[in-house]
């Protein structure tokens, strides 16, 4: 029969094993975890939170956040690198410039790969939030897009359809023509990730349709620009 002393001892004994302490993360792992949580937060709510609120939402203390990122702009810059620069494939430029393949095939190959990157929820939503809050992410990214993609596409279109080099104004008109194709693909992501609307399941087929219309109209558009 249990004595009062043994009953007290049993009451002090835990009925389940103690929870193992959370393993300490290496600084690089901790920084990456903060960045990934910041990406999710910025994608959902934008860039308006203070560093105090941001640290709370991410799940770290404000001093710890400052240890890795001295201010919110530094964290936003790191998010830009992670979401936009690290996902940029330098082979895209090589694909578009490879004249051993028909231009239509090159555009198809590029946009099928590129769409898989830009039509992600975090990519779309951070891009929109950044544009509204003037964080500078959009300008840096779009400058790269124009220099490394649009200019290559236009050079190959001129060669394909034997069109003369443009004047400054004609070049800007050509850029607008390429923007039309690019924006049409981007807007698929907008409909899904911003507006919450249904989009076609077969994105590859949808992109093929847009590319076909683009290439079919390109000769007349480029020549009309020069009139």
From TrEMBL:
Residues 1-26 are annotated as: Disordered. Residues 1-23 have a biased composition (Low complexity). This is TetR family transcriptional regulator. Keywords: DNA-binding, Repressor, Transcription, Transcription regulation. PROSITE patterns: HTH_TETR_1 (PS01081), HTH_TETR_2 (PS50977). It comes from the Bacteria. InterPro entries: DNA-bd_HTH_TetR-type_CS, Homeodomain-like_sf, HTH-type_TetR-like_transc_reg, HTH_TetR. Residues 28-87 form the HTH tetR-type domain. SUPFAM superfamilies: Homeodomain-like. Residues 50-69 bind DNA.
């Amino acid at each position: 029969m249990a004595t009062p002393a043994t009953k007290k001892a049993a009451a002090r004994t835990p009925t389940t094993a103690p929870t193992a302490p959370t393993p300490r993360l290496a600084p690089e792992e901790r920084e990456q975890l903060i960045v990934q949580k910041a990406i999710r937060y910025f994608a959902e709510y934008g860039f308006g939170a203070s560093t105090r609120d941001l640290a709370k939402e991410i799940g770290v203390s404000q001093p710890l956040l400052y240890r890795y990122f001295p201010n919110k702009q530094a964290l936003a810059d790191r998010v830009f690198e992670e979401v936009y620069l690290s996902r940029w494939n330098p082979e895209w430029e090589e694909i578009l410039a490879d004249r051993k393949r028909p231009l239509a095939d090159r555009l198809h190959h590029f946009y099928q790969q590129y769409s898989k990157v830009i039509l992600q929820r975090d990519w779309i939503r951070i891009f929109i939030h950044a544009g509204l809050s003037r964080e500078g992410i959009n300008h840096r990214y779009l400058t790269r897009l124009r220099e490394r993609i649009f200019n290559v596409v236009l050079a190959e279109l001129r060669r394909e359809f034997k069109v003369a080099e443009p004047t400054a104004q004609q070049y800007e008109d050509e850029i607008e023509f390429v923007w039309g194709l690019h924006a049409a693909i981007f807007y698929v992501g907008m409909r899904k990730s911003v507006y919450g609307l249904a989009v076609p399941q077969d994105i590859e087929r949808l992109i093929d349709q847009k590319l076909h219309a683009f290439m079919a109209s390109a000769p007349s558009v480029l020549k009309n620009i020069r009139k």
